[in-house]
Amino acid sequence: MFQHNAAKHPQFACTKCHTAFLTQASLEDHYRGKPSAIHPKCSRCGKGFYSQSSLTEHHQTAHPTVICCGQKVYEEDLPKHYNQSERHPSCTVCDMAFEDDAAYNAHGATEHPDQRCSSCRRQFATTDELKKHFEVSPNHPTCGKCNLGFFDDTSFLEVGFSKLTNFRLTYMRTA
């Protein structure tokens, strides 16, 4: 009797196209088949659905979007969008891109602190570029004799004092 009922009277039927199936899994496979006007398929993940309203609900929950730079972007595509858009800051060291300056500054401070000027909030590709920045920036003290730039007055005075101390010690030894 069980075999007769299963074969002749399937339990699972598509109410859209009236095709009958023996199992729930077979019915779901039916939805995932070729896309049609009756059974639409998600263009993002390929999952099939009973109706257009089911697909719309899926799209809103499984593939949410945000507005960024005046355009609709899928949340899962945001890193790619940040990388391709000139409106988002990108790290010159590791080629990552960020939503805004705050995220970029946090990245530079934690991932590349040796290449970052925290007082100017600027990131540099190399430590040599950072040293050059200290030399040419009006925001940083520079030695008038050798043009060496320093992060701040304290570091400028520390280096100057240690050179002066070494000079005095050397002078006192030779006398």
UniProtKB/TrEMBL annotation:
Signal peptide boundaries: none
Q: Which domain of life is it from?
A: Eukaryota
Entry GO MF terms:
DNA-binding transcription factor activity, RNA polymerase II-specific; RNA polymerase II transcription regulatory region sequence-specific DNA binding; zinc ion binding
Enumerate the spans annotated as C2H2-type domain: 12-39, 40-63
Query: Which InterPro entries does the protein's record reference?
Result: Znf_C2H2_sf (IPR036236), Znf_C2H2_type (IPR013087)
What GO CC annotations are associated with the protein?
nucleus
What are the UniProt keywords, alphabetically? Metal-binding, Repeat, Zinc, Zinc-finger
Q: What is this protein called?
A: C2H2-type domain-containing protein
Species assigned in the record: Mycena maculata
